Predict the structure of WD40 repeat-like protein.
Amino acid sequence: AISQYGLQIAVGSEDGSIRRWDALSGAAIGGPMLGHTDGVESLAYSHGSSRARIVSGSTDNTIRVWDAGTGESVGTPIEGHQGWVLAVAFSQGGSCIASGSQDKTIRLWNSVSGAQLTTLVGHEDWVRAVCFVPGGEKLLSGSWSIRDRTLCVWNITTRQLLHRLPGFSPASRSMTVSPCGRYAAARSYFTDYSLHVLDIEAGCSVGTSLTGHTETVTSIAFSPDGTHIISGSFDGFVRIWD
């Protein structure tokens, strides 16, 4: 994961540790952040909060919150999932955490108290990606398997499933939302290694698929101004799309 202004990078490991680096100098920041008892599957930085936090999800079935400056654990482990925590995200402002799990649920948590706020049920297999939509009322989630290869759009206030879009295989870094909150980009489930742009409000694809990669797409991001999409792939290339 990378911090809001791109100055710090955090990486989670199979040994349960999390390490931070200065993105400009490449120097390690502090020692390893220890607490998880199994591998770290997902990380995210808070955006827009006064004190930067890191949230981590693990195959020990827990979520932890960390101070991004000191590396210290904040509060106690957040428990509730009945399976691995495969995806985590902070809401704008950092007051809420979303998590996706092997138990097929998405859960929302108060990031300060760790209290569970709600559970979203609708996926038929592991939830591998979660992403808040700017504005705070919507959340995207993704699953990919033979049983469930969908991207879902939720209203988190009413817990209503607004749209279910088939044919996607979003993982933790292969689904992203534009800064304006209107569009999302995700990789296709099919073997053409393509990307699709989605209209979140309408619940449909926009334009034609973006093709060019020759291996699995591993990461996708919008540019800060929302005019370009950047994708990385196992084919060794980073591509920029208009």
Observations:
- The domain at 8-176 is CATH 2.130.10.10 (Methylamine Dehydrogenase; Chain H).
- The chain has no helices and 22 strands.
- The radius of gyration is 17 Å.
